[in-house]
Structures are given as structure tokens and as C-alpha cells.
Amino acid sequence: MIIRLAKLSDSANIHALSQHLGYQDEGVSVAEQRLKALLNSNHDRVYVAQLNGKLVGWLHCFYAQRVASESFIEIGGMVVHPDVRGHGVGRALVEHATEVHKGKWRVRCHSEREDTHSFYLKLGFKINKTQCVFEKKNSRD
């Protein structure tokens, strides 16, 4: 298995993988725009996992600074193809990213994804808190 930084040419494969976890399908062109922005960011990294030449997983992490608390690195998203889940791809992505980027790490998981909670606990993450996420969308008329 090869873990490497994503390239813009990976955007279609990253988009296809994302559909397996239920991310909204906004099209490959939107995925390409988003990946391009992340690749050009000084605070974001996207890693991909390749197995036998095929992209089978991705992980996005970013450096988060706060005014009143310690900075950290957060996993913004990770997807592993269903056919290779349970074969170490997710673990390899997380271990690679945490080895490259030293510091305090954080990941937020949907409260119903108990298998994901178990995955991160096995990797040494600890539950810190439970929180509510509030959203508001302002229209641009």
C-alpha cells in the first residue's frame, strides 16, 4: 500500500470514494474545485491510499488555531472503499498523517457512527467531549 499526498488528478477518484460514505454528490467539477483549494492551502493536507494502483482511501486533515485554546490538527474527513475496510487502510492513513504532522490531534464523528468511534479509540484517540453542531445558511441575494 502506498500513502501519498493527493494530486488534482485524484479528484474524480476522491469524489467516487466519497459517495460510499454518503457525502452529497455535487459532481466531479465541484470536488475538483474543493481539492484544488485544499492543495493550495498552507493549513490543509489530503492524503490518499493506493492499493495495487487503485485509489482506495483518502484523509483530509487541517491545522486549526483558536484564540483561547491550544491549536490542534483535525481530521476533516476520511473515506475507505467498502471492499477494503477492515484491512488496515484507514489505520495506515491516520498513522501516516499523525507521523508527518506532530501535535495534538482531533477528530469529530457523528454520534451514530459507533464503528467509527471504536476505530479511533483503537488508534489511541480519547473521547474528550460531546457537543452539538449548529448551522445557519445566509442567502446571498
Automatic annotation (TrEMBL):
<dbReference type="InterPro" id="IPR000182">
    <property type="entry name" value="GNAT_dom"/>
</dbReference>
<feature type="domain" description="N-acetyltransferase">
    <location>
        <begin position="1"/>
        <end position="141"/>
    </location>
</feature>
<dbReference type="InterPro" id="IPR016181">
    <property type="entry name" value="Acyl_CoA_acyltransferase"/>
</dbReference>
<protein>
    <submittedName>
        <fullName>Putative Acyl-CoA N-acyltransferase</fullName>
    </submittedName>
</protein>
<keyword id="KW-0012">Acyltransferase</keyword>
<dbReference type="InterPro" id="IPR017255">
    <property type="entry name" value="AcTrfase_GNAT_prd"/>
</dbReference>
<dbReference type="GO" id="GO:0016747">
    <property type="term" value="F:acyltransferase activity, transferring groups other than amino-acyl groups"/>
</dbReference>
<dbReference type="InterPro" id="IPR050832">
    <property type="entry name" value="Bact_Acetyltransf"/>
</dbReference>
<keyword id="KW-0808">Transferase</keyword>
<dbReference type="Pfam" id="PF13508">
    <property type="entry name" value="Acetyltransf_7"/>
</dbReference>
